[in-house]
Every structure is written in structure tokens, then in C-alpha cells.
Amino acid sequence: MPSYQVPAAPIDVEEIIKNSQFITRVRNVTTVEAAKGFIKQLNSEFPDATHHCWAYIVGNPSSTTLLGCSDDGEPSGTAGKPMLNVLQHSGIGDIVAVCTRFYGGTKLGTGGLTRAYGGGVKLALESLLTEEKVEYKSLEFDIDYAQQKDCEYIIKDFQVEGVNFDFQTKISVSLQVAIEQYEELKQAIQNKFKGQIQWKVTN
């Protein structure tokens, strides 16, 4: 799944469960540092909260290893893991969820906590707007000046970004192509120019 869904806008939801206030905030984050920065921000803004439990997934949700969660003082496994479990089953990546609790005097028990924290994330995701994020891969190659028009004609039918033609002894072409179209584009160029292409190192 080279492309995946990500949060398109921030969302906050609030619930009162047995007098405790639970505020779940969901944001789009593209790095672990950004996720941790948002968690730190909430800790600073609401120092009187009883807990700031959190979970995040950075990158493609079907393949990423960049994930984390925390119970932030709640009984082990009752907050962060239920929150992360909901995120993992949502198919959404580049996402952080923080559930802030203001204790209301009534204990919920481990089952109640699990339902409260997991449920908060579920509630937020029900109203979350998402958009597609496409992963790109670099492609670089050299062509002759006479091949420029044909090259441009081929490229226009693909999902590409950052196309650059560097005019030197030959034309050095660099671009970003959607991963799922990478091999197809490379083959199309190869076929058009009968293999007379100088490929550069790609990542």
C-alpha cells in the first residue's frame, strides 16, 4: 500500500465518564519528533491534568515500525496500548492521539480505563477528516537534447513531482514518481528510447 490515509485536519473530542473528563486530541504528524513535541506541548499547557496518555503511528500504517504509546501513570496496558490498537486498525498513518484525563474521584477499573481510552480514540476517528498521502521515489537519468520532447510527453501521464531538467552536455533529468508507478515509468522511458538511457543511482 504505497499510498495511505492521513489526518486532513485536527480534531478534539470530549467525554465525561464517571465524573472524569477525557479529552482526546488527534493530529497529523510526519515525524516522531513532531508527535513527541505535541505530547510535550499538552503537558505544558495542562499541567494540572491527571494523565496525558498517548499513541502515535508515523509513516505508512501497513509497514511502519515508527510507533509508540504510553499509559502515563495509568495502570499498565490500560491506556496507551488500547489507543494504539485503535490507530493500527484504522489504516491511518502520520497520526498522534493524546487523551488527557482530569480525574473526577471515581475509579474506573482496568476494564473501564481500557474502554475509556480506546473509546476516546474511536470517537475522534469517527469524525476525523482524512486525505490520501502518496509516497514518492526518486528517479534520475540522462537523455540527449533530441529526446526531451518525448521524455516530457511520457512523464505527463504519471504522478510525478519536482521534475527538473538540467541542461549540460546532456540533459540530466530528476523527478519524484509515485512508488506504485516507479517501475512502469522507468520501463516506459526504457522502451521509448530503446535502452539508450544513462540511469543514475536512485533511492
The CATH class of the largest domain = Alpha Beta
Q: What composes the largest sheet?
A: 5 strands, antiparallel
Note poorly predicted spans.
Answer: none
Strand order of the largest sheet: 2-3-6-4-5
Tertiary shape: elongated
Q: How widely separated are the two ends?
A: 18 Å
Rg value: 23 Å
Provide the structure class: alpha+beta
Protein name: YigZ family protein
InterPro entries: EFG_III/V, Impact, Impact_N, Impact_N_sf, Impact_YigZ-like, Ribosomal_Su5_D2-typ_SF
GO molecular function: anion binding; guanyl ribonucleotide binding; ribonucleoside triphosphate phosphatase activity
GO biological process, one term: regulation of translational initiation
Features:
5 helices; ribonucleoside triphosphate phosphatase activity; guanyl ribonucleotide binding; Ribosomal Protein S5, domain 2; Alpha-Beta Plaits; Impact; Impact_N; four-stranded antiparallel β-sheet; single chain; 30% helix; five-stranded antiparallel β-sheet; alpha+beta; 203 residues; 2 domains
